[in-house]
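Key idea: predict the complex, not the pieces.
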Amino acid sequence: MNVRLYILQRATAAIVAPLVLAHLAVIYYATSRGLSASEILGRTRGSLGWGAFYVLFVLAAATHGAIGVRAIALEWGGLRGRRLDALMWAFGLLLALLGLRAVAAVVLS
Amino acid sequence: MSLHASTHRRSGLWLAALVHRLSGLALACFLPLHFLALGLAIDGEARLDGFLKWTANPAVKLAETILIFLLAVHMLGGIRVLVLETLPWRDGQKAFAVAALAAALVAAIAFLAIAA
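Result:
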C-alpha cells in the first residue's frame, strides 16, 4: 500500500468510527421501537441532517472498504498492478453508487 | 511454514489483526446487500416494509446479531490500531484487543436482547 492510500485508509477510519457509533445507537433505538419502513422513513425523509450524515458515511465507508479490499487482494489474492487498482476502483465505485442510491431512497423518496 | 511464521501466528495480536481483517472483509461483502435493501424504498414504503417484515424471522435476527458483532469488533479493533499508530506506544495491547472483543460481544448480545 502506498503512502497516499495508507493515509486515506486511516483518515477514513477516523471519520467512520464515530459514525458507526451513531449508527449503532440508531439501530438499537429503531429496533427497540419495532423496525418498520414508516419508522425509518419518518426519521430520514426530507432531513438534510440525516442526508448529510449518510452521504458522509457512505463515501467514507466506500473509500475505506475499497482500500481494505485492495490490501486483501494484494496480500492474500496475489493481485498486482492494474488489476489490483481496477478492483479497488470498481469496488469503491460500486459501494459509493449503491450507497448514495440508498441514501436518496430514504431521504428523497 | 517457517519457524518465524508459526511463532507469530500464536500471538494474540496476530489473531486480533486476523479478526480485524476478516470482519472487514465480511462487512465489505454485506454492504452492497445492505444498500440494495434500503434502496427498496425507491419503489415505495410498502416495498421496504415487506422486506423488513421478512427480516423479523429468527435466522435473520441471528445474522443481524453477527453483523452487529462484526461491525463493533471492526470499529473497536480499528480504533486500537489508529491509537497504536498515532499516539506514543502503550503497553497492554493484548488487553486492549481482548477488551475490544468483549465489548463487541456485549454489543451483539444487547442487540439480540432488544431484537428478540
